[in-house]
Amino acid sequence: MCGQSAQAMSKMYRSPSQPELQSLQACHTTGIWRRDPMLPLKCLIDTKASTASEDSTSKDKQPKRKGRKKLLKRRKSVASVSCPIVGGSPTRPQDGVTAASQTSEQEKGQTLRLPGVPMSSARIDVLSVPAMRTTGVLSNLVSQPFERRKKLPLLVAIKPENEKSEKERFMRAGFNYNPYFVYRCPADEEAMERFNTPSDRYVQIAVHIMDRAIIHFGTYEEFEERTGGRILSKSQIISLVRKYLKKEDLESEIQLNLSEDLLSRGSMTQKKGRPQLNVRVVNLRENWCEGLLRHELGTHYLRSVNTRYQLWGEQRQRRDLNLQHFNPTEEGLASLHSVLFRDHPFLWRAALLYYVTLKAAHMSFKDLFNDIARFVHSPDVRWDYCVRAKRGQTDTTFPGAFCKDQVYLDGALQLLKRRRSLDFHLLVRLGKVAHNDIERLVEHCQLDGTRIPSFMTDLRAYRKQLNHIATCNGLTDSLLADVQ
Fold first, then answer.
1. pLDDT tens digits for 404-428?
2. Cα 220 vs. chain centroid, distance in angstroms?
3. One of 166, 224, 248, 296 is an active-site residue; which one?
């Protein structure tokens, strides 16, 4: 019985004949097994049997290391011919095939891929398209690596990563080049849409303020020199900040970060749950440093702290109370505090930001740069203003603007119009609220524990300074009557 079964097995798993071997080789070349479906299995069994017999006979003659080398060579040879081609049959490398011919074959549409790795047509398109200029949005090639990253605050996300290199290229090109900005984590399109429509309501007032300053000083550079004071070093900046923190009793609350990469002169952020004052040390002047501290600490920080004592400290309560957004009141108040106590408190920066933002929505970067030359001569200063207006945009060849900077002048005008009747102490103690909501929030407010900055203690002297700001900028009651 055993002999009969052995004979049956030998008949079933016989060695292929010469014609069958030729057919097998042809099938392997074309990638289609045209003959007997069991033929590859039979050949595999026969090959294993023959290999086993050879190994058994030469086991004593050859060391194991040689057998391992043969196995590695065999695996390499199999791997070299087992890489299929998308849309075609497997091919073997042939003698005489040059790199140029292989490149020409790939250009005809044959793209290599690894076995078992799916390659969709959309993915192939993304990899084959180079990084090129697009109309206001990042290409898929640029944005794809950052899709799963944590979302950053909007003002951080729209800061260009390559600002310095693009500035050098722009200057070398003689201002005849539109920068192409790249962002580490691009901002959401929905968030950007909220700030892509500028207003022209106060553009005439903005031009009026700047023209008045030019008549008085002649140039922006002279305005900087006379109103800003001397340029400070890092040690002098640290000394002024510490002096202000001590005066306002904020030494234990605020940590300082000096940077050269900020787009604005200063900002307030959180680092490990602790408030951090960020100061740009490039060309920071003495009087502007004082205004910066009143802007960031005396306004933004204290109003933020005072908000925690109120019922509207959370977004849900703000919605329930139907509160308006705290801007433009927030930035308008901070802008007034920036120029407070100056001999010539021109709102030039707020006016220029309003004007540049409006023009950026209708101009390319280089056209905008040339347009504001009537107000600012310095290329470095013009670059800073244009970058602020164009931040968030990739290809600045196209019109487009980040319009948040218009709130500085808008809010300042609203507060100057109401400077005689508005309770500015309540405006700070109630936290981050709009001036329109003060009257109906007085009944629900909590004033115990809230603070006001020292420069607002004397409210009569404070109003006198606001009157001086209005007079210096030529903002008469008739001009402010149309402000909403």
1. 999 999 999 999 999 999 999 999 9
2. 31
3. 296
Other C-beta atoms closer than 10 Å to the C-beta of 314 total: 12
Q: Buried (b) or exposed (e) across 457-479, using 16+ Cβ within 10 A?
A: eeeeebeebbebbbebbebeeeb
* pLDDT tens digits along 173-191: 999 999 999 998 888 888 8
Report d(CA 123, CA 128) in Å as an integer: 9
> Using N-to-C axis directions, what is the helix angle for 348-360 and 379-390, rounded to 10°?
60
Nearest Cα neighbor of 301 from 339, 265, 344, 255 is 255
Annotated domain spans of the chain? 195-361+401-480
Q: Is 296 a catalytic residue?
A: yes
Phi then psi for residue 279, to 5 deg, are -125, 130
* Residue 364 pLDDT class (50, 70, 90 cuts): very high
Distance, CA of 396 to CA of 119 (rounded, Å): 34
Enclosing H/E stretch for 192: helix 189-193
User: Minimal CA–CA distance to 322: which of 429, 433, 424, 427?
Assistant: 433
